[in-house]
Amino acid sequence: MRTRACATQLLAATILVLGCERVERVPSSDVGANAIARRVATEAGPVEVAVETSQGEFVIAVHRDWAPLGAERFLTLVESGYYDDARFHRVVPDFIVQWGLAGDPAITAEWMNAYIPDDPVVASNTRGRITFAFTDPGTRATQVYINLVDNVRLDSTGFAPFGEIISGMEVVDALYSGYGENSGGGLRRGDQTRIVAHGNLHLDREYPLLDHLIRAVRR
Description:
- This protein is α+β, with helices and mostly antiparallel strands.
- Helices cover 31% and strands 21% of the residues.
- The protein has a 9-stranded antiparallel β-sheet with strand order 3-9-1-2-8-6-7-5-4.
C-alpha cells in the first residue's frame, strides 16, 4: 500500500512539473471526444484557416464532421503557432504537398509522439483536400498533406481528409517541387531523422529552395 501511495504521489508531482513546461500545450493521446463533439455541435459549418506562404496565401476549410479528431488536432496546432515558419519539406509533383515538422526541433520533439486516434474515412482524398500523414494506425501527430491530384487509392488505407482548399490552390501548385522525395521523404520511408534533429537549420542548408509556411491563422 505504501508503494502504491508513493507511486501516486510521484505521478501527481510529475504532472504538476510538466504542467509548468511548454509541453502543457500537447494534448494527450485522447483528444477528448466528448469535448470535440460539443464543439462540433455549437460551431456549425467549416472553420477557415488562412495559410501564408512564400508563394502567397491559400485558405483551408476545416470540416469537423469529416474527421473530428484530425480537425481538432490541426486547429490546435494552428492556434498554438506550431506550423509557423515551417518548410514544405515534401512536395511531389502529381501527388502531394506535405509539411508539419516544426522549424525548431525542440518544438517538434514536444509533439511528434502526441498521437491521436484514427478517424474513419468519410471524405475522399481528392485534389485539394488535406489529410494527416501517419505510419501505422493510431500514429497521427502533426504532419499533414494536401492532395495535388485525386489520390482516392489512399482512402482504403485509412487516410481521412479533414478539410479542403477553398482558395489559393494555384499557390499550393506553385510550391517548389524540385527536390521531390529527397528533401523530406515520407514518414513511412523513415527519411526524416535530420529534419527532426535539426529543423530548419538542416532544410535551409541542404534544400534552400523549399518554400516557407510563414504563418497559419484561424479566421
